[in-house]
Amino acid sequence: MKKLALTTALALTLGISATAQAHPNHAGYATTKADTVWISGTGDCWQHGFWTADNKTVECGAEAAAPAPAPAPAPAPKMMMMDAEEKHIVYFDFDSSAVTDVSAIVNYVGSLSKLTSIDLKGYTDRIGSNAYNDALSQRRVEAVDAALANAGIDTNKIATHSFGETNPVKECTNAGASLKSCLAENRRVEVTINGQKQMKH
């Protein structure tokens, strides 16, 4: 592109101030009062006598800087099998072995890539004889075992244990109906599920 050198006299004739000519954004070029490079009738940028090649701008013929390369994509996370364990508790009404809901257990087992084992431990409260409570805790673990089997879980992975009124989680000194209510947390089957899950690494 043809570049035209502009003398001081011509700059004054065009009404271009010395301050505008020296503006750092347009060093080496004559500028207008609006701080834009003066363009000739042929489309050339007006250069003053102090112009050097280092002053060349994109609007006056310099090549635009190449865009920065896009960052490399992050590597996809690797999936690996990891051991997983979760515990649940199934509670029972007084002197009952009726199972209410095992959906949380079934859903968790369904989330596993591999089921290793399910351990069931049955308990009762302290009301009643030891022999009766031993049998009741056994009925409770068998009831949970059957409910899981009905939900499609492999019973070969399930181990059952009954402990009667041993290992209470709550002690109470109430009497009558109040005592039964207080001891509710002891009427339970503890469920421990072990397996493997696919997890990001």
Question: What this model shows, in words?
Answer:
The chain is α/β, with parallel strands linked by helices. The chain has 5 helices and 6 strands; from the N terminus they run βααββαβαβαβ. Helix 4 links the parallel strand 4 (114-123) and strand 5. Mean pLDDT is 83; it is low at 1-22.
Q: What distinguishing features does this structure have?
A:
2 domains, 60s Ribosomal Protein L30, Chain: A, single chain, rod-shaped, 201 residues, alpha/beta, 23% helix
Structure at a glance:
This protein is α/β, with parallel strands linked by helices and 201 residues long.
Assigned CATH class of the largest domain: Alpha Beta
Radius of gyration (Å): 42 Å
**If strands are numbered along the chain, what order do they take across the biggest sheet?**
3-6-4-5
Write down the overall mean pLDDT: 83
Q: How many structural domains can be distinguished in the coordinates?
A: 2
Poorly predicted regions are 1-22
CATH superfamily placement of the largest domain:
OmpA-like domain
Tally of extended strands? 6
CATH topology of the largest domain: 60s Ribosomal Protein L30, Chain: A
What is the 3D form? rod-shaped
DSSP summary: helix tally: 5
**Helix and strand pattern:** EHHEEHEHEHE
- Percent of residues in beta strands? 15-25%
The helix fraction, in percent, is 10-25%
Distance between the termini: 58 Å
InterPro entries: Bact_OuterMem_StrucFunc (IPR050330), OMP_bac (IPR006664), OmpA-like (IPR006665), OmpA-like_sf (IPR036737)
Subcellular location: Cell outer membrane
Protein name: OmpA family protein
Main location: membrane
